[in-house]
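Q: Given only this backbone (228 positions), what sequence would you predict?
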């Protein structure tokens, strides 16, 4: 399990099963981001990932948001994220929880039925972290990795990858909306990598800080509305 807290100049990593989190000042908005490489910001500085960029936008809009805590790791599927959360034994409640998960389920060819079941369980986990407050949970769609340089060179059938990503997103959107939770669709923007390679990090697969900024900009209005 990896627990990260992004800071201006560095980040902290804890691997114990009972992490001690910073005590937040009174009235500070606490934020937990859970997911995989897209949440941890693989291949970009931690400050370039969407959780930290989102925090900056919220602060610029007068919201007292503390340092975001991130439980995520490159390669995690829904089941691996859930297992890591359980091992973390994290009992703190948060004002805001974001969830972005599923690309590795798709990449590994796991069934959509399994994804639906495990995603629904993660929604309940996110709600638990938000102390049952539906207005505090924000789900982000899975980006399309198929059109990245890595995807194009992978030997995969790219139209099939995109179609599969859409199918997984149809599931997470349906389950999210059925729970009355916020859903932000960043997938169409992720497909602009075909014409704008500045949206891709140096590894040719993961988003650049520029793309993460666009995700943060898309997410921000829903959070601002819920928090003000």
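A: Predicted residues:
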């Amino acid at each position: 399990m990896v627990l990260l807290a992004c800071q201006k100049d560095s980040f902290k990593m804890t691997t114990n099963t009972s992490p001690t989190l910073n005590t937040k000042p009174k009235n500070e908005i606490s934020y937990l981001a859970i997911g995989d490489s897209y949440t941890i910001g693989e291949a970009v500085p931690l400050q370039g990932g969407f959780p930290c960029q989102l925090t900056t936008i919220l602060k610029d809009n007068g919201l007292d948001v503390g340092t975001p805590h991130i439980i995520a790791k490159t390669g995690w599927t829904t089941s691996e994220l859930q297992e890591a959360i359980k091992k973390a034994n994290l009992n703190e409640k948060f004002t805001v929880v974001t969830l972005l998960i599923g690309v590795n389920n798709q990449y590994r060819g796991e069934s959509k039925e399994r994804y639906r079941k495990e995603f629904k369980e993660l929604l309940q986990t996110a709600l638990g972290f938000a102390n049952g407050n539906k207005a505090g949970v924000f789900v982000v769609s899975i980006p399309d990795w198929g059109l990245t340089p890595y995807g194009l060179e992978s030997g995969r059938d790219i139209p099939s990858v995109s179609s599969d990503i859409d199918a997984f997103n149809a599931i997470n959107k349906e389950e999210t909306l059925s729970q009355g939770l916020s859903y932000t669709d960043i997938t169409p923007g992720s497909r602009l990598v075909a014409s704008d390679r500045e949206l891709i990090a140096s590894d040719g697969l993961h988003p650049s800080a520029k793309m993460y900024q666009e995700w943060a900009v898309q997410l921000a209005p829903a959070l601002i509305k819920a928090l003000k």
